[in-house]
Amino acid sequence: MCIRSSRSSALPSPGCPTGKLPAVREGVRAAVGPPAPWLTAAVRVSGVLVHTACCRWPRRLSGNGGFAMDALWMVPLLLLPLLMWGSSAFVFYFKKFFYVAWMMVLALVSIPLCILKSGGRDVENMRIIRFMVRHVKYFLGLRFEVSGWEHLQTEGPYVIISNHQSSLDVLGLMEILPDRCTMIAKKELIYAGTVGLICWLGGIVFINRKKTSDAKSVMADAAKTMLDEQIRLWVFPEGTRNQKGDLLPFKKGAFHLAVQAQVPIIPVVFSSYSNFYLRKEKQFKSGTIRLKILPKIETKGMTCNDVSSLSEKSFNLMRSVFLDMSDSVTQSNGPMRH
C-alpha cells in the first residue's frame, strides 16, 4: 500500500516499488560522483512518475481491464536518464542508433522536397540536404569550430579533400559544404534505404572501390561533369574510415581528378575525435570538432606525372595540421586514447 501525506510528498511503503529508490540513488552517487543538476531533476521527476505508474494507477484503474498495465510502457522511458548517466556503452549505442535512425527519417522527408524542387537527381538538392542535417549536431551534443572560411570562397569548380574518421564526418561536411558541391562515395551507400536514395538525388558520385578500372572511368566522367556543370566535389582520399590517431596513405583518385580537370584542391582537416568518440571503447560523449580549411593547391599545368608528388604534398600538409590539432585537443581536453 502506498501512503500519501497531507502535504504533496509521496511516502512509499516497503511493498511499493519505489521503496528502495533512496538507498539505490545514494549507492550510485557514492560510486560515480554527483550527477549534473539537470539529471538530478530528471531522475526525481522520473521517480515520481514511476511511483504513480506502478503504485497508484493500478489501484485506481484496476476496474478498467488492462489499461493500467498499458501505462507501464512509460517505465523504460522514465528510467532513460539513469541509464544515460550510469552506462557509457548505453550512451554510445543509444546515440549511434538515434543518429542512423534520425538520418533515415530526415532522408525520407527530404526525398519529396528534392523531387519537387529539381524534378530528380541534381546537385542543387544538396542545399535541402544540408539544411535538414545541420541541426543533428545538437542532439548528439556536438559543436563545430571552423577556421579558414575564406579559402572556400574560390570561384568555379574545385576538389575538396579531407580526412575520414567516422560517419560523423557527414555533420562536419554539411557544416561547411559550399554551394554546388557534392561528394564521391562508395557504391554500397546507394543501397542504404532512404539515405541511399537521397544521396543519389543529391548528385553524389558512386564508385566501386573493388574495381579500379570502373573507378577510373567514373573519375574521368566526374572531371568532365565538374567543368560542364561548374560543380565542386568532396573526396575522402584515405578511402576508408580511420580513427588510429594518424592519417592513412592517400589514394590517388582525387588527385587524378583535379589534374585532369585542371581545378584546384582545397584541403580540409577534421580534428581528432578521440577526446569524445571512441568506437572500440564504446564511448560517445559531447565534444567539439575543429575544422581547418587550408589554402587551395593549384593544379594548372600539371600532368598525370605530377599526381604522385601532388598526393604526397597534400598528405604531408594535412598530416602536419592534423597532428598539431590533435595536440591542441590533448592539452585542452586531457590525454587522447588511440
TrEMBL record:
Ion transport is among the record's keywords: no
Enzyme class, spelled out: transferase
Its EC number(s): 2.3.1.51
Pathway: Phospholipid metabolism; CDP-diacylglycerol biosynthesis; CDP-diacylglycerol from sn-glycerol 3-phosphate: step 2/3
Domain Phospholipid/glycerol acyltransferase: 158-273
InterPro entries per UniProt: AGP_acyltrans, Plipid/glycerol_acylTrfase
Ranges annotated as spanning the membrane: 66-85, 97-116, 189-207
Annotated Gene Ontology cellular component terms: endoplasmic reticulum; membrane
Family the entry assigns: Belongs to the 1-acyl-sn-glycerol-3-phosphate acyltransferase family.
Functional note: Converts 1-acyl-sn-glycerol-3-phosphate (lysophosphatidic acid or LPA) into 1,2-diacyl-sn-glycerol-3-phosphate (phosphatidic acid or PA) by incorporating an acyl moiety at the sn-2 position of the glycerol backbone.
Name of the protein: 1-acyl-sn-glycerol-3-phosphate acyltransferase
Encoding gene (name): agpat2
